[in-house]
């Protein structure tokens, strides 16, 4: 039913989304924690910067990443100096772009979850002689678990649905940067509507099931412990 | 003014589009980007009252959009087959008119491409070559044909990166992410691009002709401005613009 290149594009998409979600859990959690707990005035500007990818059109963001990561751009010169080479047209280039693009989808739900905890649980942990790091992992993380799940699923789903940035800086290379959304677009452009419908249906069903699982899990208080 | 009146005014402003009797919207293949701006300027000199909007994009996308009732009055396709197919499907109010043949060139933003040949693409210093996506962009298809005809395909396929259309392929070169690109002559002659590294015309016996055609869409059947614009394509001034931008004109007048 699906061609080999369709299947390849689906795997690539899942791989990209999984890596981006994992990286954003590492990068986004401290940012969200800081945004939830900090009391300085520059919490506002930082929060706004984190939310910026929500506003910028993906194709515009993609164009500027292409400039920044190109041989004349500062990021491109840095990666070349580090011996990594240039990022556009590579899988890891897409990973970097997607981490930026999906950042708010990880940080904002986590920040909300951390804020909802309030100070009390951590104060109690502190009186029981838990170090801040200890309190974070044994108290804050378990209590914010629903937030982590929501943030992860939103990030994953958002990366699966990513299109403009990938199109702008990916170079449409099969198995490297041709993700499912681009593959569907190519089918449509080539007037191969049957192929496009099939691939789109697979993506739609997959996404629906993921989001359904999230809804069911959230509406079942027992599963949340 | 009460707040209701204010709301009403804002609503009117938001939901009413400006109505002009003679307005045309043109969907044009992206290789026409620079030429069409000049052509519209010429047209506006003769018919200053008419309003002309041009939208550039891929011929295949416009093809699909027109089938779904997109509000375009004229459709300029980089591949005459798309225009023909729309006409066959009853979406045209005119015959399919061939207006030009396109040419492809090697173009670089950093190297002197004017004395290059296709063999130069084998140079290990050239790591990325940008072309339009051959799956749906006519210029990309011709680029692939030329590379295959010259026997270079197997050796350089791994260097290729694919832009959504030729303008996007040119962007890859312009930003330095690809050292060289195969793009439309019509884009390469533009001063902003030609001043960079120059271009080299790829011999047209290496690929199938890039015959381009336009139609007046069914929607514009009664639109006299669309008709005037179509006729204007045959004028001396417009033909001169097309030649200036590197298009080869069909032998017979339009």
Architecture overview:
The complex is a heterodimer of chains A (225) and B (254). Chain A is built from eleven helices and no strands. Chain A is mainly alpha-helical. Chain A has one domain (4-218): MetI-like fold. Chain B has 254 residues and is α/β, with parallel strands linked by helices. In chain B, the strands form two sheets. Chain B has a five-stranded mixed β-sheet with strand order 2-1-3-10-4, sandwiched between helices. In chain B, strands 7-6-8-5-9 form a five-stranded mixed β-sheet. In chain B, helix 2 (33-46) runs antiparallel to helix 11. Chain B folds into two domains: 21-101 and 209-244, D-Maltodextrin-Binding Protein, domain 2; 104-201, Periplasmic binding protein-like II (D-Maltodextrin-Binding Protein, domain 2), CATH 3.40.190.10. Chain B has helices at 3-15, 33-46, 59-67, 80-88, 138-149, 153-156, 166-174, 185-188, 191-194, 224-232, 236-244; strands at residues 23-29, 51-57, 74-77, 97-102, 104-108, 129-132, 160-163, 180-184, 199-201, 210-216. Chain B has eleven helices and ten strands. At the A-B interface, helix 3, helix 9 and helix 10 of A face helix 3, strand 7 and helix 7 of B.
SSE map:
The complex is a heterodimer of chains A (225) and B (254).
Chain A: H1 4-37, H2 43-55, H3 58-69, H4 74-81, H5 91-117, H6 120-127, H7 132-143, H8 145-160, H9 164-170, H10 180-189, H11 193-218
Helix pairs in contact in A: 1-5, 1-8, 1-10, 2-5, 3-9, 5-8, 5-9, 6-7, 8-11, 10-11
Chain B: H1 3-15, E1 23-29, H2 33-46, E2 51-57, H3 59-67, E3 74-77, H4 80-88, E4 97-102, E5 104-108, E6 129-132, H5 138-149, H6 153-156, E7 160-163, H7 166-174, E8 180-184, H8 185-188, H9 191-194, E9 199-201, E10 210-216, H10 224-232, H11 236-244
Parallel strand pairs in B: 1-2, 1-3, 6-7, 6-8
Antiparallel strand pairs in B: 3-10, 4-10, 5-8, 5-9
